[in-house]
Amino acid sequence: MRAIQIVEESGPDSALALVELPEPDPAHMLGWVGPDSSVVVEVHAAGVSFPELLQTRGQYQMKPPLPFVPGSEVGGVVLSAPDGAAVKPGDRVAAFCALGGFAETAVAPEFFTFPLAAELDFAQGAALILNYHTAYFALLLRGRLAAGETVLVHGAAGGVGTASLQVAKGLGAKTIALVSSEAKEAVAEQAGADHTLLLGEGWKDAVLELSGGGVDMVLDPVGGDRFTDSLRSLREGGRLVVVGFTGGSIPEVRVNRLLLRNTEVVGAGWGAYVMGKPDLNREIGAAVNGMVDAGFIRPIVGERFPLERAAEALRTLDERRATGKIVLDVRRD
Ligand SMILES: NC(=O)c1ccc[n+]([C@@H]2O[C@H](COP(=O)([O-])OP(=O)(O)OC[C@H]3O[C@@H](n4cnc5c(N)ncnc54)[C@H](OP(=O)(O)O)[C@@H]3O)[C@@H](O)[C@H]2O)c1
């Protein structure tokens, strides 16, 4: 099969090689998943995300020995599945494989493989798990977002951002999207944001005005120097949910601010939390598919590249140019 490997940790321009490899072993690389619980997937589209970019530099927490095939999630068709799995050969699926997705065949645990609704194409399937499961986990399970509340979403035209706008809507909340350009404002609107704001002087005051004195939640995949203004944007009892640090620096909190305003900072690390919890994954998968069926979730796919141009795909993330989900078309269909 054709696959992209990371052969050295020198950044997206030089770390990748297009190679021919034997079909993967159904014993999934996640050590505790054996061949009896693995689904083999014919990959049509592979999602491209920050972990793959960080892996080209050796900066991600999961560090397999070189060379290895990156790619955490795919949309495709089941080739084989264990007895008792929710999917069977021939089914269209979205699957989270953690590694190995940038290839014509990938292997995922059965509890991380979900039926793909007819309304979504393979590229949207490759955009469904990492971002939407994270959004559901961060907004509801960690942040306790309730119907009628208002959430401010940073990086709202990005993968996690667009997913969070749609999941928040599905939970009955109102959304304010904060982005850095007018083109990204259009993407946030397409994702269903109730309000969009441009990053710049005064965004915090605009949030306070739009929300009538403060939002109930801030969903933050960006971090950096906007963090203090994010805390100032919360109303009493509000929660700031920390999801990532694309801005490049990890903010520090002066906890007196939390005490004085009765607010919370909540960490949301989806992968580490759900990895050993098959039933929780099935529960989140069912909830996300329910929101697809109800029309709230329609993944926004941005630029698409053929498999052999994976380096360019990673650079769009690196250079802050990505909107929605970046996808590799692994098979031409
Ligand atoms: N906690 C978890 O479980 C979890 C799960 C999935 C992903 N994540 C993390 O969430 C973060 C966002 O992932 P994503 O897939 O949504 O990324 P993305 O599609 O590239 O979006 C990230 C957004 O961050 C903003 N940004 C600000 N400064 C940036 C910079 N210097 N470089 C790039 N972007 C910058 C951009 O929005 P503006 O230009 O509008 O500011 C961009 O749209 C990543 O750090 C990822 O690792 C965490």
Structure description:
The protein has eleven helices and 15 strands. Helix 4 links the parallel strand 8 and strand 9. The chain has 333 residues and is of the alpha/beta class. Strands 3, 4, 5, 6, 7, 14 and 15 form a seven-stranded mixed beta sheet that branches. The chain has a six-stranded parallel beta sheet with strand order 10-9-8-11-12-13, sandwiched between helices. The longest helix has 16 residues. The mean pLDDT is 95. The structure holds NADP nicotinamide-adenine-dinucleotide phosphate (NAP). NADP nicotinamide-adenine-dinucleotide phosphate binds next to helix 3, helix 4 and helix 9. The site of NADP nicotinamide-adenine-dinucleotide phosphate (NAP) has 29 residues, from helix 3, helix 4 and helix 9.
What is this entry, summarized?
This protein is an alpha/beta fold and 333 residues long. It is 28% helix and 26% strand.
Which spans of ≥5 residues are poorly predicted at pLDDT below 50?
Answer: none
Number of helices: 11
Give the radius of gyration.
Answer: 19 Å
Small-molecule binders? NADP nicotinamide-adenine-dinucleotide phosphate
Q: How many beta-strand elements?
A: 15
Order of helices and strands: EEEHEEEEHHEHEHEHEHEHEHHEHE
Report the end-to-end length measured between terminal Cα atoms. 16 Å
Judged by helices, strands and strand pairing, the structural class is: alpha/beta
Mean pLDDT: 95
Helix content: 25-40%
